[in-house]
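Progress note, sequence design subtask.
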């Protein structure tokens, strides 16, 4: 098997175009002796003569032309590789795996993917739905490149493994039955609902968020029912079984039998962050996805 040398093949091709060693040397910024030495080495490696003298000029042998016919295909493929690498470096192509919790997918990830398809169609996003805490386990294990989570569940900014990027301060609205006495009350505050049965998960981030928000308003919520999915929570609210705090990004449209009220005084928020492994934010494709997520968060805020 011949050990092909791309540099020597380029010299051979240039000689075929320029016809003299001197012109080839000038074109490649080499000395004539270096050109001759490289071509002699190539002929020895291939085991065939490559040049024929024709006065002051040289002519490629039939063997040299055969070699160049195959080399041209290699040069063409290398040009494609150079172009693709340049596009990769500019963030125009690449695959980014994103782990995101359920409500972040329709609210942030899907709009970001749509924007990328238009602006940077060579960037592919592969989405994996995961609980907010699990997303960081996947990130640390290298199974995703970017994780979306809640700040309350994210590693601290001091964690040397990750770089955190704040994305969104998501307002929490109160969901009440449509016919609730306070459904249309002016200046509704969380404290006004202290005596209501509350619907939230028995444990996990949403339990912590609900309890923290209510305690900040001066009361401990009485848990009437336990549920983790927003479909179940809103269905129970609609049925008059209790009230709930609902992140604005979790509700697409207003359920017919549920009144969603914005809290203007003691307005609680949940903070959504993105994270990548330390140093990965310098990757161009990851940067494109982060940029699209920021824009989606800004559009939805």
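Output:
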């Amino acid at each position: 098997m011949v050990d092909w040398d791309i540099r020597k093949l380029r010299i051979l091709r240039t000689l075929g175009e320029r016809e003299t060693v001197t012109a080839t040397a000038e074109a490649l910024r080499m000395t004539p002796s270096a050109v001759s030495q490289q071509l002699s080495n190539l002929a020895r490696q291939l085991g065939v003569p490559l040049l024929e003298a024709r006065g002051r000029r040289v002519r490629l042998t039939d063997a040299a032309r055969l070699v160049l016919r195959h080399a041209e295909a290699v040069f063409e493929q290398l040009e494609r590789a150079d172009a693709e690498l340049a596009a990769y470096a500019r963030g125009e192509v690449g695959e980014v795996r994103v782990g995101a919790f359920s409500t972040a997918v329709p609210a942030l990830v899907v709009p970001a993917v749509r924007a990328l398809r238009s602006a940077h169609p060579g960037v592919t996003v592969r989405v994996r739905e995961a609980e907010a805490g699990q997303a960081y386990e996947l990130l640390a294990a290298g199974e995703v490149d970017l994780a979306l989570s809640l700040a309350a569940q994210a590693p601290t900014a001091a964690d040397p493994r990750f770089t955190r990027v704040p994305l969104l301060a998501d307002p929490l609205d109160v969901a009440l039955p449509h016919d609730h006495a306070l459904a249309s009350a002016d200046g509704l505050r969380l404290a006004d609902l202290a005596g209501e049965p509350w619907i939230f998960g028995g444990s996990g981030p949403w339990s912590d968020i609900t309890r923290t928000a209510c305690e900040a308003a001066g009361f401990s919520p009485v848990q009437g029912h336990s549920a983790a999915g927003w479909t179940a929570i809103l269905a129970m609210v609609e049925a008059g079984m209790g009230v709930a705090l609902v992140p604005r990004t979790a509700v697409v449209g207003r359920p017919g039998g549920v009144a969603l009220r914005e809290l203007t005084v003691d307005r609680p928020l949940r903070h959504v962050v993105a994270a990548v492994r330390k140093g990965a934010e310098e990757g161009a494709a990851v940067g494109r996805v982060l940029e699209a997520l920021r824009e989606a968060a800004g559009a939805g805020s």
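The two ends are 63 Å apart (CA to CA). Work on this subtask will continue into the next period as scheduled.
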